[in-house]
Amino acid sequence: LFLPSGLLVQSLEYNQPADNYTVCQGDNAILSCSIDEEVTRVAWLNRSNILYAGNDKWSIDPRVQLLTNSPAEFSIVIASVDVWDEGLYTCSFQTQAKPHTAQVYLIVHVPARITNISSAVTVNEGSDVSLLCMATGKPEPTVTWRQLRDGFTSEGEYLEITEINRQQAGEYECVTANGVSLADSKRVLITVNYPPTIKDVKDAYPPMGKPALLRCEAMAVPPAEFEWFKDDKHRLFGGLEGLRIRNERTRSMLLIDNVTARHYGNYSCLASNNLGVSNATEEIPFPLSVHGGAAGQVRDVSSAPLRPRPRARVSQQGGD
């Protein structure tokens, strides 16, 4: 019979196979021998080692203590059981007729725990990645890898990713469980480096005397460094010619406080990191004017062909 606090071993079942008594590592195990006839001697043994003989303690283990020694019951407790406590325990008692034994096999379950896991990984896009997560426990635990961003899972200690791409970057969680206690989990961060990619850019059409803003946004790991050029030859710096440059983690902004004739033209944004370069060209085109020809004359532009406004252009190149 199983009791809430331990196992009751019936003396009348001494010829039966040993019962199994399962406890979790760290819990207390109570071994109770129910005696239904008069006895002269009684003892609890672990394998061939006597733990208690009547009221006398033979074990040197302080965790083993006597609970009850009465005509009807002989019980001991093993506090904070561990894996080395697992094994066969015997209640041996002598009646007027003959000696008897009753046995129980103590099974110690150990919660699943992660003992070793890969450190954070930084690789270039297209590389192969291998993660390891080792766990212990009893019964043998399962190990599952899960990508937190999209929920992808993989069973087993090893997670192999072939030719990793930037969408596969992020945190990966290793979870181990064996049903004994709550699951154990740890996370590993994978950083994927890749060259800059500039998103679509748009031309600006500010009128004379008004402010203008050009934006250049680039996705890259590590983050890109930005440079601005005018007409593909003059590098621009903030504070000169009424220009301001504001760089953030993923974008750069070129601000012109007051557009004058010298500000019209092509502007190139160059984004670079150690893996490659990407550039985009934006234009502040000269505005269409109705004034032309001789001084004081007004040119009719109703039938004149309009100057096409060129689109922003993006190009890039990256290293392997």
UniProtKB/TrEMBL annotation:
GO cellular component, one term: side of membrane
Region (Disordered): 298-320
Compartments where found: Cell membrane
Primary location: membrane
Annotated SUPFAM superfamilies: Immunoglobulin
Entry-linked SMART domains: IG, IGc2
InterPro entries registered for this protein in UniProt: Ig-like_dom, Ig-like_dom_sf, Ig-like_fold, Ig_sub, Ig_sub2, IgLON_domain, Immunoglobulin_dom
Keywords associated with the record: Cell adhesion, Cell membrane, Disulfide bond, Glycoprotein, GPI-anchor, Immunoglobulin domain, Lipoprotein, Membrane, Repeat, Signal
GO biological process, one term: cell adhesion
Domain Ig-like: 4-105, 111-191, 196-285
Membrane disposition: Lipid-anchor; GPI-anchor
Pfam families: ig, Ig_3
PANTHER family: IGLON FAMILY MEMBER 5, IGLON FAMILY OF IMMUNOGLOBULIN SUPERFAMILY-RELATED
Family designation: Belongs to the immunoglobulin superfamily. IgLON family.
Protein name according to UniProt: IgLON family member 5
Organism field: Chrysemys picta bellii (Western painted turtle)
Gene that encodes it: IGLON5
